[in-house]
């Protein structure tokens, strides 16, 4: 346990080192936040109450999305490139001999990273958004806590997805295609481009059941106090359920992969 | 060489090409979803928004196909491999652009072009020879403008090794911004992309003329034909920034 805590702390520190990258990320998140916020305003002007959100809630959704983009790894978990490179070069064989579990190791790295991203890239865009636009913010102080729990669950689901994607390199060698598919699903089915409640009919119903809903749609709804009481428990159960299923799938794939590991290179 | 190496992993290539197409298509699906809920966005019809989308998407896709790798220059600066390029007797920019050239990026061009053509079919515009000629001029100028922004962004990374995301704000961010009609944005923002960083000349200014609408931010009508001029200025400036960047580049020395 202490080992994994140290690894997580390392993950946090590692991303904290790249100050320039963090500043650049904050800048980009803020720019995109502004562009999205204006398109949402045009949309909600035309159709007030669309998707069950009023204007202030829709705008809050935009900025929560920008704050969680890096934290919940919507466009990449931040570790899959490295892990896939290790699989491709054969370095993975060394990792498998280590007295640490591969999945838990990377989960710890990922948790540390997300912790930093929330502070480093989440807080500032959210604050800018709240100053520049009239956002719906939580009325109960406890909602912030409930939101953080939901974000933490989202982070685990995101990790579990990206871990599976990375392991696909054992079979595909070049995982670029799988990464892109995951990246696409992450942006589209998380609600990043448009809240899932705005998706029409069956598409919306399916989208709200997929794991990616855990990354943004669910935390955002918790933030907007759309899910309280029993509904909140249901939201948590949804996220935790996906986390368990996907983590177990990751385990199974890891076991299958290590049995057939072919070390490339020297 | 990079084309051949990509083809080695055929399955992966097919997947990336398809997903590249889909990646940009999803962008457009969002607009379709929006228009499934509303009749117009800021007073612009679906065909008009599709026209804006197709024009910027094609221009951006072409620039990305040719120069998409330049945005990864920061990595080369960090690990010192830029040095290898500097000692070869070929322009550095050409080497960076050719490095890991990715034909899968064609997906973006094809998608943008498809929407552009579709919008031309749907549009209800009184076409004049001038307007017809303006469409290809707009796409080529936009291509040059985006290319220049990408080169300048690459040069910027020689100072700020980790700053690739700043460039993304102008390239991807600009592309997203220009997909929507200027009237929905704060007018200060519109003035910014007209007079400060004139990205508006990629499509807004010429496209609004084609659509028979008022030019943004109080520009005169003839500004619609200024895109090639703006593109030329952009390219000259990017060349200058690039040269200054190369000259001030210091190896990491590892």
Descriptive overview:
The complex is a heterodimer of chains A (266) and B (254). Chain A has 266 residues and is an all-alpha fold. In chain A, 74% of the residues lie in helices and 0% in strands. Chain A has one domain. Chain A is built from 12 helices and no strands. Chain A is globular, with a radius of gyration of 19 Å. In chain B, 70% of the residues lie in helices and 0% in strands. Chain B has helices spanning 2-8, 10-37, 46-67, 73-79, 82-86, 92-98, 106-122, 129-159, 164-178, 187-196, 204-210, 227-248. The longest helix of chain B is centred in the middle third of the chain and has 31 residues, at 129-159. The interface between A and B is large, with 40 and 41 residues. Chain B: This is Transporter.
Task: Detail the topology: elements first, then pairings.
The complex is a heterodimer of chains A (266) and B (254).
Chain A: H1 2-17, H2 19-46, H3 55-71, H4 80-89, H5 92-97, H6 102-132, H7 141-167, H8 169-172, H9 176-188, H10 201-209, H11 217-223, H12 230-259
Helix pairs in contact in A: 1-6, 2-3, 2-6, 3-6, 4-7, 6-7, 7-11, 7-12
Chain B: H1 2-8, H2 10-37, H3 46-67, H4 73-79, H5 82-86, H6 92-98, H7 106-122, H8 129-159, H9 164-178, H10 187-196, H11 204-210, H12 227-248
Helix pairs in contact in B: 2-3, 2-7, 3-7, 3-8, 3-9, 8-9, 8-11, 8-12
Transmembrane segments (chain B): 12-38, 50-68, 109-127, 133-156, 189-210, 222-242
Protein name (chain B): Transporter
Keywords (chain B): Membrane, Transmembrane, Transmembrane helix
């Amino acid at each position: 346990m202490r080992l994994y805590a140290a690894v997580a702390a390392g993950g946090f520190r590692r991303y904290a080192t790249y100050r320039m990258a963090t500043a650049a990320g904050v800048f980009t998140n803020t720019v995109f936040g502004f562009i999205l916020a204006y398109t949402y305003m045009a949309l909600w002007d035309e159709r007030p109450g669309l998707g069950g959100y009023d204007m202030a809630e829709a705008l809050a959704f935009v900025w929560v999305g920008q704050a969680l983009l890096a934290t919940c790894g919507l466009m990449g978990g931040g570790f899959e490139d490295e892990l896939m490179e290790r699989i491709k070069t054969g370095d993975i064989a060394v990792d498998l001999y280590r007295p640490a579990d591969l999945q838990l190791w990377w989960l710890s790295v990922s948790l540390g990273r997300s912790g930093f991203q929330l502070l480093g890239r989440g807080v500032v865009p959210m604050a800018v958004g709240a100053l520049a636009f009239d956002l719906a913010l939580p009325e109960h102080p406890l909602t912030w806590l409930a939101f953080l729990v939901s974000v933490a669950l989202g982070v685990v689901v995101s990790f579990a997805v990206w871990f599976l994607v990375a392991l696909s390199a054992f079979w595909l060698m070049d995982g670029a295609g799988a990464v892109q598919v995951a990246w696409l699903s992450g942006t589209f089915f998380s609600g990043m481009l448009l809240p899932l409640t705005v998706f029409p009919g069956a598409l919306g119903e399916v989208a709200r059941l997929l794991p990616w809903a855990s990354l943004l749609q669910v935390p955002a709804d918790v933030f907007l106090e759309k899910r309280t009481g029993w509904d909140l428990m249901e939201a948590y159960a949804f996220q935790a359920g996906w986390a368990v299923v996907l983590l177990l799938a990751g385990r199974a794939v890891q076991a299958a992969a290590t049995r057939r590991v072919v070390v490339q290179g020297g | 060489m990079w084309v051949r190496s990509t083809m080695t992993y055929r399955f992966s290539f097919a997947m990336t090409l398809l997903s590249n197409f889909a990646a940009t298509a999803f962008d457009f699906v969002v607009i379709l979803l929006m228009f499934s809920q509303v009749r117009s966005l800021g007073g612009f019809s679906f065909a008009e928004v599709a026209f804006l989308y197709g024009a910027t998407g094609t221009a951006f896709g072409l620039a990305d196909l040719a120069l998409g790798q330049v945005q990864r220059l920061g990595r080369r600066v960090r690990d010192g491999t830029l040095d290898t390029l500097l000692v070869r007797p070929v322009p550095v920019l050409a080497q960076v652009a050719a490095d890991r050239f990715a034909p899968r990026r064609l997906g973006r061009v094809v998608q943008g072009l498809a929407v552009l053509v579709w919008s031309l079919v749907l549009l209800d515009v009184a076409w004049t020879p001038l307007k017809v000629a303006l469409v290809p001029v707009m796409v080529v100028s936009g291509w040059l403008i985006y290319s220049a922004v990408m080169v300048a962004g690459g040069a910027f990374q020689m100072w700020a090794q980790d700053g690739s995301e700043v460039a993304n704000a102008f390239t991807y961010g600009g592309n997203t911004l220009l997909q929507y009609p200027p009237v929905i944005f704060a007018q200060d923002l519109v003035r910014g992309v007209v007079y400060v960083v004139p990205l508006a000349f990629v499509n807004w200014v010429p496209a609004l003329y084609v659509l028979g609408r008022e030019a943004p931010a109080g520009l005169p009508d003839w500004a619609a034909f200024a895109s090639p001029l703006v593109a030329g200025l952009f390219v000259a400036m990017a060349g200058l920034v690039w040269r200054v960047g190369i000259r001030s580049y210091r190896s990491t020395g590892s």
